[in-house]
């Protein structure tokens, strides 16, 4: 704007000099006009300086904020970066878990007893880090049709002996997911497709809580497909179906017939989860099924069951979860080790079972949570031999307190109540103090 006015100023100066027809009063007016122009120019310069300063001040804060965010992201990447040959992002996760435990005399010297033993022994107490979990999460490439590949691998040190220097790394769960908007194809090792839920516990991690007492949990190879349907913003369906490899060796087999047992069989499973609500209030109900056959002693023993699992969150601070099943020959899914009974050289019958579990979680404060859970498995006594367990019931309660963003402390107490067909009821108590560092 100043540049535009300079020619005007020169013109006003030269006109009176060249024309020599102007009087002194005219010259005086011209000088006054020049003074006003000079004042206007000074004001313009000041306004320009103020505008430049305002622009500098307004841009400084966002730039500094962006630099801070970038520095934090760089630090996070430095902490989680794991090199891979395919240059795909991999993050390290898991839980360093310390347990101090105390069991009653019917624990059988086990850290996490599944049943109360028949005969008393020494009280089992000690400390362990063998339930520590290591995990890797993979973020893979894009897939045709707008899909994405990802995966995970979780391991612990629960294999080997109970000696502190003899823990072996083992795979817990591992999956490769090929996901699209409404469809996911999964290959890996996980819980049975129809039984994905389980109670919350830091005391029982090496085996799932309520093993042998209503929670069918066996981590086994499988392939499954999931299709998601949305019927509005607050209602939908998740349909899952697949093939699950059973663990037939989990069932007790007489030594004379051990060689006749086929240790792995395909199982056909499905689950259909109906859900409604949002994060604060939500209901999930899911019926499911399992179909397979056990091959032993030249016979085919059916394994059939139906199931139902649920999640109910009436308010943000309370959550009720659980599962129920009914069927036959369920030992190959992580239940009590009694799936079938051999009556003779050519007679094998399945054992009929009924079981389930439930948990109430109360979020007392953002840092403190209380869990109370229990479950049981009832096997039909007429299908069992004399040493069998007709009912195994476990109930427990624990407090979990968040000492820091990634540090948890927990105390849990539980009791196993095992009813034997011939020897009657046996009780065993279990206490556990845990400290977990999440990473």
Question: Summarize this, please?
Answer:
The protein has helices spanning 2-19, 24-80, and strands at 90-103, 125-128, 133-143, 147-160, 167-179, 183-190, 220-230, 235-247, 264-277, 282-296, 299-315, 318-328, 340-344, 347-350, 352-363, 368-379, 389-404, 407-420, 424-438.
Description:
By secondary structure, the chain is an alpha+beta fold. The protein folds into 2 domains: 2-74; 89-438, Porin. The protein contains 2 helices and 19 strands. The strands form 2 sheets. Strands 1-3-4-5-6-7-8-9-10-11-12-15-16-17-18-19 form a 16-stranded antiparallel β-barrel. A two-stranded antiparallel sheet has the order 13-14. β17 and β18 (407-420) form a beta hairpin. It starts with a helix and ends with a strand. Mean pLDDT is 88; it is low at 1-23.
Layout of strands and helices, then pairs:
Blueprint lengths: L1 H18 L4 H57 L9 E14 L21 E4 L4 E11 L3 E14 L6 E13 L3 E8 L29 E11 L4 E13 L16 E14 L4 E15 L2 E17 L2 E11 L11 E5 L2 E4 L1 E12 L4 E12 L9 E16 L2 E14 L3 E15 L1
Antiparallel strand pairs: 1-2, 1-3, 1-19, 3-4, 4-5, 5-6, 6-7, 7-8, 8-9, 9-10, 10-11, 11-12, 12-15, 13-14, 15-16, 16-17, 17-18, 18-19
Helix pairs in contact: 1-2
